Amino acid sequence: MAAQYPDFDKLPLDKTGPRGNAWGLWGKDDQLGTLNHLTDEAVGQAARENIKTGTRLSLNWSMKGASYPKFARKNLDLRLINKAPLKHAHDDEWSFNSQCSSQWDGFRHYAYQNEALYYMGRKAEEFAASDHPNSIHHVSAKGIAGRAVFIDWYSWALSQGLEIDAMSSYEVPFNQIVKTLGFQNMNLDSLRAGDIVVIRFGYLSQYENMEPAKREYLDKLYQTKKPDNIGLKPSDELLRFLWNTKVATICGDSRSLEVWPCKDLDWHLHEWLLAGWGMPIGELFYLEELAKTYDKFVEHAPDAYPGLSPEDAEFMRGYEGKTGKKVVKKIDFRLLPIMAVLYLLAHIDRGNIGNAKIEGMDKDLGLVGNQYNIASTIFFVPYIIFEVPSNIVLKKVRASIWLSFLVICWGTVMTCMGVVQNFQGLVACRVILGVFEAGFFPGAVFIVSSWYPRHELQQRLAIFYTASAFSGALSGLLAFGIARLDGARGIAGWRWIFLIEGAVTVAAGLVMPLLIIDTPERAKWLSDDEKRYVDLRLRLSGVRSNTEEGDKFSWKLLFKTMVDWKVLLGIILAWANSVPNAAFKFTMPQIIKQLGFSTAQSQLLTMPPYVCGGIAAWLSGRFSDRLSWRMPFIVGPMSVLLVALAVLFNYSKNVADNVPAMYVGVMLAQIGIYPLLPGISAWTGNNLAPSWKRSIGLAWLLAAGNLGSLIGTNIFLDREGPQYPTGYGVSLGIICLGASCALLMEFCLWKSNKARAQLSEAEIRQKYSQEELDAMGERSSVVQVHPLAMENMLQRPWWCWASIMK
Fold first, then answer.
1. Domain that holds residue 36
2. Are 380 and 412 in the same domain?
3. Omega into 787 within 30° of 0, i.e. cis?
4. By the number of CB atoms within 10 A of the CB, which of 407, 596, 623, 667 ranks highest?
5. Helices 565-593 and 632-651: angle between axes, nearest 10 degrees
6. Sign of the C-alpha dihedral computed for residues 730, 736, 741 and 746 taken in this order
7. From the CA atom positions of the chain, what is the Rg in Å?
8. Does 214 score more than 60 pLDDT?
């Protein structure tokens, strides 16, 4: 409860916000608004005074009620399904729009129209990014429970001889509400803080008793025009009373609580109550059975945590807000830096061959023709082959042991590259390096995706993937510094690059078993309650299976995953990253050197493009997670990359006169490249379940996607420099193909979500057992595929009960 409750005349509380707002009264993170008036004391008093006989009455109108004349919202579609092969068992299958019948308008439903601001000043994009702000699931913590004051305006109006057409824009002014209270031997002082105001306008009474001719007329009219309806006339007096009396919420039996269309926009109730105060509005409540009863006790509690036990749901409520955020931050700081460092080392070790080349490696080893390209390319052959097997091993062996083993092995191979004497030795080391590096990135992606819900994933992947961008910058800086050892102990500078960087990797691998986190259950720095919280949020988001049977490896699962259309389209998207990425990884130092810079300058000038690419990856991931939308943050960078390659190809005809433009093109290329793989990995991982399928799918995506690296390392041919028509042409073509596939994937996922939306989650869970849902994986309608996270803004009051006081 607010420390000091202000008078109506003190509104707005946020002076920078729209008229009448009460933002901040119950704290900056409030999610309940005027429901804060429903204190334990107020509800307890209502229960003691009004629950007498135990008689229960439903306030729900029939979900098939608005069928003729029909509103512009989907009515209930009810099908009876025989549970074959059982002969005497059936299920009900339901599909409907939540506003076709009795429902509460939540705080996401309506904004201040001119300002486009919802309750607490929140914007629509915040709702797409997270299921937390202004969601009606916050109401489920304690439900809507209290004393309901029933105001039967319709009975009073009929007693006064008023002619009422509830299907018209008939305005009910506040003074008539006051008169109705008097008619019921009550007055304004009869209401108290925490009351639920329930008004009967006669809308449903007239709807159900409508003459056939009028039904036919209105049904045709509603096909082209939004229905008019009776309702409260918005006014200063009405709002002042609701606020100063501390009414918790208000509802009625009309299609809209306020008259529609609303003409008094200065006092527009949907703006003032929903967006301004956070007061839920109830509509189409069936009140005919209560027409002569004034005080009720009403309870309504929507399920905020479907699929969880009552005990788990209650536990999750305790972690809402700051407590849960602290746990997530703890995971961020423990998990992501370690993965970022390892990925940094992996990219330095695979790409430093390019730095070694311009320090004289090719001359010392006698490389001729396309032998350098072969040595660069051969790395990706075992890298592709061993990615999927490595991730299968990862599911059988502790991640801390397996990934540390891989790091130590590739670090050892990297050190050995410092002593090779010929082309054959270089190729052998690159092959073995590919074997051991193959398992790291898909394993790291799988581990990260196993800790975070889907809408939080890309930003986290981008954080440690950004390390690959900084590896390019750091690799150039390290090469510049290490190469100064040229001749020390009789060893060439390029050899020192391999020796020192390999030794650092081995050292890192030795300490990794102490730092890498396998699963939340093994994290000693998480309390038992924190582990439970992490587990439950992963189950709610579909990342984890709720049953053991739903998450087992099988060869059938392996095959189905490898031919899954989402994975196959993702592979083409990955090619649009790997072709230009591999090409620039191994040829950027050479491209920059051809701009007229010295070897040392070229090493240093590789840094800014990689830094820009890393920043772009992080920003892209952050905004993609906020909006829970992947496609724009994949197609967008691809568009930037297209522009960059066009600039480079155009100006490469006359490099000497276009050095600044060429260098800007190189920077734009990295800005376009580095956001791609985190987005593609997150998008694919978001749409694969359970964890075995996600593990295999991500590994297969990255393995097959790296086929593009075989192409990328062989298209920028030395003999074609500095124009590189083959390199730029192939890159442009594959990027266009990738952008087209991203748009196709977005459309297919949208269609899939549209089909899934025909059933609510509650209906799905009633139809299928948890084992059946887990077996379906992401094909289950409970797991919404992820072009865009969406949430119903309105919730039907599934059950209500009232005790009648005679």
1. 8-76+104-302
2. yes
3. no
4. 407
5. 30
6. positive
7. 32
8. yes
